[in-house]
Specification:
This protein is mainly beta. The chain contains no helices and five strands. It has one domain (8-78): OB fold (Dihydrolipoamide Acetyltransferase, E2P), CATH 2.40.50.140. It is globular, with a radius of gyration of 14 Å.
């Protein structure tokens, strides 16, 4: 039996002030239906950071997981790029 593929997103850490949690902003570009211009849309996800190793500005990969709290159902997979 195979497990379903979990969703993964790449985004930027916008907050790490919570205990073992980070806020990740994921930006996507959508084409406007009428005008054809590309518009940036941002979604924010609360992710679990067990070791509290992320800083604001880091680029990270997060994956979907079971609900860990009311708003937290993503977890940190890896840090792709650290801010200097």
């Amino acid at each position: 039996m195979t497990r379903n593929k979990r969703k993964q997103r790449v985004g930027t850490v916008t907050s790490n002030k919570m205990d073992k949690s980070i806020t990740v902003a994921v930006e996507r570009r959508i084409r406007h239906t009428l005008y054809g211009k590309f518009v940036k849309k941002t979604s924010k996800f609360i992710a679990h950071d067990q070791d509290e190793q992320c800083n604001i500005g880091d680029t990270v990969r997060i994956a979907e997981t079971r609900p860990l709290s009311k708003k937290k159902n993503w977890r940190l997979v890896e840090i792709l790029e650290r801010v200097k």
